[in-house]
Design goal:
heterodimer; A: ABC transporter involved in vitamin B12 uptake, BtuC
């Protein structure tokens, strides 16, 4: 069990999992507490358009997906703030359109798309050093953001109206946070893929919510739960020879069920 | 009469194109205790939101005579209170406008919050999750948030909607004390409350009728019949008033 730690690919995977647990732990706590899970999932799927575009233009698909993710996040917010179209409908449209654009570009790209399935379903073992650098930057930004602006983020998320009266920069904070959601989701796509990545931002956080109702405690618990389940998932993936994304999500779900049962039995 | 503090001129406002209030002119004076009354849907909360700056009016303007600090108790929406935050943090958020970015709450802020929680019977809930409070407790928490910063003007939208009689009495005692150096604007469709505490009354049902003073004279009744029940103190009998004539 220890010896596989000496493989470089496994060390990279562990490092990636650690970074993902931190960034997803922080941003996911915000997503779950503010109940914007659906918009976050919409952004993820919409960013697939960027992956297709990256293939087509021969660029790093993660970078183009980031641009796509942020633009669709702002697009969804902007269109639904105009009031004519409901937010859930807007999300549905962006989600499907992004996927469609991605598929079109991939089909227009000559030749075979080699690691397409790693973007769809995730494969933490294909993570490159560049990906790790990018992930470190995003993790640093998320951590610095939540530490420096904790009270602003908390108050705006809790009650926008009152935050406005308190002269907090509500719009700036909302747009920054949704952009950060897009960045965190996209930078971690390699781990669980477009289809499963939302679970890294929701299952550990929902588990943490069973234990605590304090925002800062939820963040820390989510990071810990995320880390435990991704390392467990990695070992599962390695020994059972199954995709890492699915095994990590499975581990998260198992932890959730254990905690839920413990809560139920405690209540008697 | 004191100096004017807030002047509301020709305000019309509403949501998504529909007009809720029309051509409102109103002056709030320094140290005023203004009661805004009117039927459900008459535009009480809308007017409050326009004055505070939460809703942009379609027409007209709100003029502040000097720089003032607002405190606000919104009308409660009990559906949306599940965010993981403690009661004390909600109350501290009332001090957010006084904190610079990066600045944390200090010992003084916490002492102030503790004091107010004591006054409003919330001490034992200090660390409780806000989402687990009852309606009355939420209202007391929001009241604490509204007054923790010692605002110049305190806006209250239905402050007693969820609280019990005992607390309501206590609340008005606190408000009268506050009114010595705070201007208060209170919206209510509560019967028997407004006129015994306020200095002036505005009655709003799309348009606004201003009653200087808190006594309802027969002249006012003839001119501006208000569609709510008002119980007054003094020599006037308690009575139910009829609909605004212009609403028929």
């Amino acid at each position: 069990m220890i010896e596989i730690l000496s493989y470089t690919f496994f060390q990279k995977a562990i490092l990636t999992a650690l970074l993902a647990s931190i960034s997803c732990g922080i941003i996911g706590s915000y997503v779950v507490s503010k109940r914007i899970v659906f918009i976050s999932d919409g952004i993820t799927h919409a960013s697939f358009g960027g992956i297709g575009l990256g293939y087509f233009l021969g660029l790093n698909p993660i970078i183009t997906a980031m641009v796509f993710g942020i633009l669709s996040a702002f697009g969804i917010r902007f269109i639904s703030s105009k009031g004519n179209i409901r937010e859930d409908s807007t999300i549905g449209i962006f989600l499907a359109l992004g996927m469609a654009v991605g598929i079109i570009f991939i089909y227009l790209t000559p030749g075979y798309a080699p690691d397409l399935s790693s973007y769809l379903f995730g494969n933490i073992l294909t993570v490159t050093s560049n990906d790790i650098v990018l992930s470190s930057v995003i993790t640093l930004v998320s951590s610095a953001g939540i530490i420096l602006f904790y009270k602003e983020i908390l108050f705006v998320a809790f009650d926008e109206q009152y935050a406005k009266i308190m002269n907090l920069k509500v719009e700036l904070i909302n747009y920054s946070m949704i952009a950060l959601v897009a960045l965190v989701v996209v930078v971690n796509i390699r781990i669980a893929g477009v289809i499963l990545i939302i679970s890294l931002l929701t299952i550990p956080q929902t588990t943490a919510l069973l234990i605590s109702k304090k925002f800062n405690v939820i963040i820390i618990l989510s990071i810990i739960i995320g880390l435990i389940s991704s390392i467990a998932g990695l070992y599962l993936s390695f020994y059972l020879n199954i995709p890492s994304g699915a095994s990590i999500v499975f581990s998260e779900a198992v932890i959730f069920i254990i905690v839920k049962l413990a809560c139920l039995s405690k209540r008697g | 009469m004191n100096e004017p503090l807030i002047e509301i001129k020709n305000i019309s406002a509403g949501y998504n194109g529909s007009k809720i209030i029309e051509n409102i002119n109103l002056t709030v004076y320094e140290n005023d205790f203004l009661g805004i009354i009117g039927p459900n849907g008459g535009g009480k909360s809308t007017l409050l939101k326009v004055i505070i700056g939460l809703l942009k009016p379609d027409r007209g303007e709100v003029i502040l005579k000097r720089k003032v600090k607002f405190g606000y108790l919104p009308q409660l929406n009990l559906n949306d209170s599940r965010f993981p935050i403690t009661v004390k943090n909600v109350i501290l958020s009332g001090l957010a406008s006084e904190k610079k970015i990066f600045q944390r709450f200090n010992k003084n802020d916490h002492l102030k919050a503790d004091e107010i929680m004591e006054e409003f019977g919330l001490t034992e809930y200090s660390n409780a999750p806000f989402g687990e409070l009852s309606g009355g407790q939420i209202q007391r928490t929001f009241l604490s948030r509204a007054i923790i910063s010692d605002p110049d003007v305190l806006f209250l939208d239905e402050p007693t909607a969820f609280t019990d009689k005992g607390f309501s009495k206590n609340l008005y005692k606190i408000l009268l004390e506050k009114n010595k150096n705070t201007t208060i604007v209170m919206v209510s469709h509560d019967t028997g409350v407004i006129s015994s505490y306020v200095k002036n009354i505005a009655c709003i049902n799309r348009t606004l009728h201003y009653h200087s003073g808190n006594e309802i004279t027969s002249e006012i009744l003839d001119k501006y019949v208000c569609p709510v029940e008002i119980i007054t103190h003094g020599t006037l009998p308690h009575r139910v008033l009829m609909m605004h004539k212009d609403k028929k």
